[in-house]
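>> received
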Amino acid sequence: MGEHFEGVATAFERRVRLHPDKIAIRDPRGSATFDEVWSESNRVAAALRARGVERGSAVGILGVGSRDSIVAMLGSWIVGAHVVPLAPEHPVDRISGTVSAASVRLVVETDAYTLPSGVAPAHERLRQLVEQGQPADQETVPADLADATAYVLFTSGSTGVPKGVCVPQGALCALALRDSPTRLSADDTFLVHTTLTFDPSMLEIWSALLVGAGVLCAPGSGLSLRSTADLLGDDRVTVAVLTPAVFALMVERYPQAIAGLRRLIVGGDIMPVGQARAAKSLCPDVDIVNCYGPTENTVISTAFRLQEWDGTGDAVPIGVAVAGATAHVVDADFRPTAPGVVGELVLGGDRLADGYLQDPATTHARFIPDPFSSLPGARLYRTGDRAARRADGVLEFHGRADLEVKVRGVRVNLTEVESAVGSDPAVAEVVAVPVGSGHERRVVAFVRAADDVDGPDAKGIRTRVAERVPAYLVPDHITFVEEFPLTGSSKVDRDALADRVGVLEHGDGTPQEPSTEDLAAFWLRRTGSDPRAGESFFDAGGNSLDLIRFIDDVGATYGIELGFEDVYGVASFDELRQLVIAAAGERRDG
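>> returned
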């Protein structure tokens, strides 16, 4: 393996020796030095060992990015166990399914989060582990943990079942420590605001701490756009990562929030070219890096600095392979394509994941021997993405070749959406298709209703699906059909279905007075439909990013700030209107 391919605890301990009293973590509960984090992590490791956790064990971590969750991760890695992040906002069935699929031995509850009832394994509060752990005086970190699994993250699966990606500790260290456009300096502070179940959170936390930089942890995840802007504008924050969807909104609404950063990393989907040009103009001193990389290649595979872009063309390049990764564009016979010719993008290097948890068949199909390398055991990962290499070696992204798409920064397999919707008793058949592109992409489920259903109810289906799966697997729209169009080979014609929908666009008008008519115009603009009695924002066609836009519209127009969680829970336009009126009244009275 290459340089810096080592265990996470080994790399962190080196930083503790260099600057034990430096602040490593700031979160809503306070701050902790590198030495304090190391001490607490060793106590957690001792407590885990006492509970039978050992190398190869799976430890669930329930929470968000914080001092508690970071200590839980590091303590697990000292033992040689791997962590399985669990999102508190996920439905109980999803959490339970993840715990079962990963054979989690123990769930560590961090901060104020508690394991939902009905989830089977043992669970412990992080702070109790810190208090009870008694590490040996001369205890040292094993030197052979580079190949041990660091974390298992579950991504959308082609069989309709999420697949667990197993990433080794050495790959995470190599990403953090090797020279690349995303490597931090010890003087940086990285904003931690991504949910732990998505791998950018690992970049936020460990690319900072392993080089001696600090992290500032947000108070939870799923923040409003304004709250995110406030955090980005914190004088202590120098580096942040945003999905292209949030990046686009930030450039449109709060460009000053990112103007003070040293570096902004954008990844997880296609960077919107218009906002990229605007950011390059509005924030000329910010090192904006467009990144590409699947979870199977440890967060980042390629990177491209906007400083090197002339702003022409209809897409922002994804750059060149970084931090020990390799990238090849091949044709159907696995031969390198000529410059400018689109082919399949395959990735290599020592930062590849070990494979998929308990799924040797899929691992064998996606992780293959590397014919371009002379190193023994070298592998390639078949991404399913299409790309072209320019004459100068820079890569350009050309979309996916299969049913896996990025929707609002989250990788979603349409088969999994179909599996979730198809399990509803009111559904006989379902086909899910993406519509739109980039940060405006949505998923529409075309449904043939079950024969015994009297009056199919799209709202009811979406509501029931949302009770069982995470929000990103709930289709944005459900459209009923009598039958599906077919191609000449008798397969469902997904393109024909997508053409029935078209691309949903939003208007540009901004109402100026707080009235029912103005709020209805906001609603129409952000959901694509007029308000209807008893229909929620999401039933009307909106999604979480549209809701962020709606909240920001209200704030910019009326001078009031609505809480995302408060607005998220309203059941109808009338309830939302009353919420806005009440907030406006509080502002006047205040």
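>> DSSP finds 19 helices and 26 strands in the chain.
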